Amino acid sequence: MELKPLQADVHVITDPHREEKNQYESEERDSLSQTISKMPCKRLNICEYETHKLVRIQSVRLGSLKWTFNGVILMFICIVMFWNKEYQEHDYVVSSVTAKVKGVAMTSLPDVGDIVWDVVDYSGPSQGKNSFFVVTNVIVTKNQRQGKCPEVPPYGKVCWTDKDCVKGFWDQNSHGVQTGACVKFDVTQKTCEVSTWCPIETKKKPPKPALLASAENFTVLIKNNIRFPNFNFIRRNILPEMTDSYLKHCQFNRRTDPWCPIFRLGDIVLEARENFSEMAVEGGVIGIQIKWDCNLDGFLRNCLPKYSFRRLDEKESNRTLYPGLNFRFARYQTEKVLSFKPAIMMMVIL
């Protein structure tokens, strides 16, 4: 059987507009390329995108080094977080403070005699919240009683006749209310008579050394109760492990007993870097700060008070008009018709 090849006619159909279309697309690409080349981002290489080739190396040494670096970085982050306690919730403390002073002293006042001072005598009236007072020096005007007497210069008005005095007048520098009479003060001058405690105090500078210098050995028990509301956590500076026998004999010491709540006044002033004997003459103000920085984590539980001391008032007499701390306080004692009244008490607030 004889096979004959088939013949087929092939007809090529050409597009007359094909060459024009290709030429148009070529010109459009050239135009776009020129436009991109003129853009600013082309010069700054921000219109380009590139990828990095990933190479995976099978090596125990390099793999170990990689995970070691990762572990060190993770450990550093954890240490910083735990060191700064960033994982914890913080709360402000609610606090109350009370103080109880103990000590007895005896002084010998000029023209008065020996006087025993106990807590009632040297504590004085309360003048502030969360504070206590201890008298360290006194200026006494003895045998005072209410009556009429000439005002003391320069506080009293110098006069010549009764017309120079106004009845019922009082100013901030006077010790009493004027009666309207001009009376003899001494052999050289007259002053307006006043109704006040007579005789009027005249001594202004406190005695040196201080009369109650032995107050240095007085002690004070400070009770501080705190509460963290968000955690319902209550604590006080008298710690649970402290017994009654321990509190009877302990005394605060920065090195040997830093948590004892009983403080010697001399040690308080010494902690504030002051001298008690010098400070007791004109008085002063000592601030006691109790800092509670508690960590309530179960495995790191720690909540103990830290005490710090500093002087708050200006101690230099030549740098202030009213150095130290002083105030007037009356103590009445009736003996027939006489009355005893300490006029000024120098005090130390601790």
TrEMBL record:
Q: Name one GO molecular function term.
A: extracellularly ATP-gated monoatomic cation channel activity
Q: Where in the cell is it found?
A: Cell membrane; Membrane
Bilayer disposition of the protein: Multi-pass membrane protein
Keywords (A to Z) from UniProt: Cell membrane, Disulfide bond, Glycoprotein, Ion channel, Ion transport, Ligand-gated ion channel, Membrane, Receptor, Transmembrane, Transmembrane helix, Transport
Q: Which PROSITE patterns match?
A: P2X_RECEPTOR (PS01212)
Its recorded reaction(s) are:
Ca(2+)(in) = Ca(2+)(out)
| Any Pfam family hit | P2X_receptor
Q: One biological-process term from Gene Ontology? A: calcium ion transmembrane transport
Q: What does this protein do?
A: Receptor for ATP that acts as a ligand-gated ion channel.
Similarity comment text for this entry:
Belongs to the P2X receptor family.
What protein name does the entry list?
A: P2X purinoceptor
Organism listed in the record? Salmo trutta
Gene name per UniProt = LOC115164676
